Amino acid sequence: MQESPHEWTVRASVEADWRAYRDLRLEMLADTPMAFLETVDDARRHSEEHWRRRAANASPTGRLFAAVAPDGSWLGSMGGFQAVGAPDPHLVGVYVTPEFRGRATGLTDALLDAVIDWARGRGERLLLDVHEDNAPAIRYYERRGFAFTGRTQPYPLDRSANEREMALPLG
């Protein structure tokens, strides 16, 4: 757990966080729908068990981190995931509430640092896919050392748009 002078901590989620995770997930899907592979309507239909399982961090192939306020609410989250047999892990589910986004609070960097620490030793690079029109995210990733790999793929929720792969060396 990373302590912060800004009255939040970054830590791995636990099953008891399921409500806070659900609330933040619904917020993120409503706020920045192009950044995720799920719609807010689909997410609203998930069962409590789904949210508990996702928050529990029980899978050996992934880890979900949250920036948590003193009241237990989530201010942001990022996850790491590595498909079985994949050579490199991926950064997924990146979201910071508008109150903390783009400000010099250190919250976004602390979340990304937690995922990078988790990813070390799991591959040579940390990969991510970013929507081609998400300029603020691209600027942030480039500032943190990610570079485009040249790989693109159609964005699953709108095949007329693309996601662009970026990579950060982990060595």
From TrEMBL:
<dbReference type="InterPro" id="IPR016181">
    <property type="entry name" value="Acyl_CoA_acyltransferase"/>
</dbReference>
<dbReference type="InterPro" id="IPR050832">
    <property type="entry name" value="Bact_Acetyltransf"/>
</dbReference>
<dbReference type="InterPro" id="IPR000182">
    <property type="entry name" value="GNAT_dom"/>
</dbReference>
<protein>
    <submittedName>
        <fullName>GNAT family N-acetyltransferase</fullName>
    </submittedName>
</protein>
<keyword id="KW-0012">Acyltransferase</keyword>
<feature type="domain" description="N-acetyltransferase">
    <location>
        <begin position="8"/>
        <end position="171"/>
    </location>
</feature>
<dbReference type="Pfam" id="PF00583">
    <property type="entry name" value="Acetyltransf_1"/>
</dbReference>
<keyword id="KW-0808">Transferase</keyword>
